[in-house]
Write a structure and sequence with these properties.
Layout lengths: L4 H10 L6 H12 L6 H8 L8 H13 L4 E6 L2 E5 L5 E6 L5 E5 L21 E4 L2 H6 L1
Parallel strand pairs: 3-5
Antiparallel strand pairs: 1-2, 3-4
Helix pairs in contact: 2-4
Length: 139
């Protein structure tokens, strides 16, 4: 479900994040583009609409949104950081052919974690790589 601009503004206010046009545009972009974008993707799409926008502002905004729990960092490849506005528990599948990232539902508590009884787990991520159905039929 797409969030309205007012709801996005309220999310920022509720997290005590100072409102700015650029922050709102980045948050709006994240809520409407479920493609797990990189900073470059966000910059290239928003720069036309907000010419004063810099990559540094996008990095800083995404960091602020991450710390507020409004976006999640997705690092499937060592050299590529992507962002996800779906912060609930789910996994990711990256197609090695088209490089698209797909979400899938998963229950992390159903995984046995033997040997971690006294560990405090801060983050749970599951990533799979392979070929998506569209690319499989093209091959």
């Amino acid at each position: 479900m797409e969030k309205t601009f007012e709801k996005l503004k309220n999310e920022l206010k509720n997290k005590n994040i100072r409102l700015s046009h650029q922050r709102l545009k980045v948050l709006e972009y994240m809520s409407t583009h479920k493609t797990h974008p990189t900073v470059d993707m966000i910059y290239n799409d928003l720069q036309k609409e907000v010419p004063t926008l810099s990559k540094t502002t996008i990095y800083n905004t995404l960091d602020t949104l991450k710390n507020a729990g409004l976006v999640k960092v997705v690092t499937i490849e060592d050299n590529e950081v992507r962002y996800d506005s779906r912060t609930h528990e789910h996994g990711h599948f990256k197609c090695v052919s088209c490089e698209e990232i797909f979400d899938f539902d998963i229950k992390f508590d159903s995984f046995a974690t033997k040997g971690l009884d006294n560990f405090k787990i801060n983050n749970k991520d599951v990533y799979f790589k392979g070929i998506c159905p569209d690319c499989s039929t093209k091959q």
